[in-house]
Design brief:
three-stranded antiparallel sheet; Alpha-Beta Plaits; 3 strands; binds copper (II) ion; 69 residues; single chain; alpha+beta
Length: 69
C-alpha cells in the first residue's frame, strides 16, 4: 500500500470533499481517500493498478489540480 498526500487549493466545502472522495473511490486500486476541507488536503491510499499519475490526472480532470505531496 502506498499513501500520498496533496494540497488542493480548489477544495472549499463539503461538496468538494464528497466529489473528490467519490471520484477517487471509483478508481480501481484506490483503497482509501480522506479529504479535509479545513486544510485543503487529500490523503490517498492506493496500490496497482492505481498510480500517482492516474490519481493526479483524475484530480485535475475533475477540477481539483493537486499541488504537490
Ligand atoms: Cu466545494
Amino acid at each position: 500500500m502506498n499513501t500520498i498526500k496533496y494540497n488542493i487549493p480548489a477544495i472549499s466545502c463539503g461538496h468538494c470533499k464528497m466529489n473528490i472522495e467519490r471520484e477517487l473511490d471509483e478508481m480501481e486500486g484506490v483503497a482509501s481517500v480522506v479529504v479535509t476541507v479545513d486544510d485543503k488536503q487529500a490523503a490517498i491510499g492506493f496500490e496497482v493498478p492505481a498510480t500517482v499519475e492516474k490519481i493526479e490526472t483524475l484530480l485535475t480532470e475533475i477540477g481539483y489540480p493537486p499541488q504537490g505531496s
